[in-house]
Amino acid sequence: MNIKIADLEHRKGEPLRFQLTLDADELKRRHQEIRGLTPVQTSGEAAKLGDLYYVNGNMQADVDFVCSRCLRPFKEHVEVPFSETFAEEGSELIDDEDSEILSLEGDEIELVPLLQENFLLDIPSFPLCTDDCQGLCPTCGVNRNEQACSCKNERIDPRLAGLADFFKDSQ
């Protein structure tokens, strides 16, 4: 879906509302941590105020992940807000290096690539089933969220092993 600049100029600051659905298969292909995805429902509005064009709204979907620590599959409802500002090509507002204002190319704003990028950037690279997930024991492989293990997982850097012997003698 594209928003025509002329439509925004005729509305004289009144927002143009839009709704669209992003292709779940395309998003799933572009992010390795997404195992399953419902269609991404997007709603938002676009408006022209002064010399700037604003596009903002919200995206929602249910995403299937595999926990990076315990390898358990889980589903999470994801809501991604988005807000972008555009200015016409050649505007002084775009020339600033720190500016987050995007340049308009042509007479339309292409929404799909913009929304796909915002959605994918909000997806975690290392998804966790819970913030306090304890993961798998590196020795026996048991899921430490479900049961405790008696493995000693104390690892000492071999370069510092001599220091451990030094402190043993002083006690």
Automatic annotation (TrEMBL):
Highest taxon of the lineage: Bacteria
Pfam family, one: YceD
InterPro entries, alphabetized: YceD (IPR003772)
Name the UniProt record assigns to this protein: YceD family protein
Source organism per UniProt: Brevibacillus ruminantium
